[in-house]
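User: Could you go from structure to sequence for me? I need the amino acid at each position, not a summary. Structure tokens:
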């Protein structure tokens, strides 16, 4: 638009200069002849061409120049607005990206901590499961002798009483042996 403005200004100046000079132009000049040979004057005033119509060309160029000036102004304003919007968008994008990078770092660290805790818990689970398996195996080994002896409660009570009685007899025998 700036280059077009300059070109229109130059064209307007050339046209104005041309019309100004044509208004001052002299009438058709003829070579010096005798008055008898002189023909009646055809032009009694300087030829100015189609000056009013030429003025319209100048007016048209001035309108074009005004349009180019308006276009330049609108373009400059639009560019400034768009530049501000771009700068704001860029700033917000950088800020948002930094925030997301920070969040990513925190989440990565949290994930690493969680994975480490999971590995430690799984190791503890293996150890505890191993201890439980050993305890269950030992329980299964002891179960037949302690719990499932195949004898009822009454029989156990009867055997216990017989054993207590035989131990008391053994005590009497030992006590009598000590006295003699």
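Assistant: Here is the amino acid at each position, in order:
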């Amino acid at each position: 638009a700036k280059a077009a403005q300059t070109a229109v200004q130059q064209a307007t100046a050339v046209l104005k200069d041309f019309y100004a000079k044509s208004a001052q132009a002299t009438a058709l000049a003829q070579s010096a002849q005798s008055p008898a040979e002189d023909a009646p004057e055809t032009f009694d005033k300087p030829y100015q061409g189609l000056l009013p119509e030429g003025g319209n060309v100048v007016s048209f160029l001035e309108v074009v120049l005004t349009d180019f000036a308006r276009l330049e102004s609108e373009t400059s304003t639009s560019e400034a607005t768009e530049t501000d919007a771009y700068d704001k968008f860029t700033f917000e994008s950088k800020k948002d990206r930094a925030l997301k990078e920070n969040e990513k770092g925190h989440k990565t660290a949290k994930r690493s901590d969680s994975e480490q805790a999971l590995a430690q818990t799984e190791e503890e689970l293996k150890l505890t499961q191993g201890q439980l398996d050993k305890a269950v195996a030992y329980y299964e080994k002891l179960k037949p002798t302690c719990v499932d002896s195949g004898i009822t409660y009454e029989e156990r009570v009867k055997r216990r009483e017989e054993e207590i009685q035989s131990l008391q007899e053994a005590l009497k025998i030992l006590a009598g042996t000590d006295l003699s």
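One structural detail worth keeping in mind: The CA atoms of residues 112 and 118 lie 10 Å apart.
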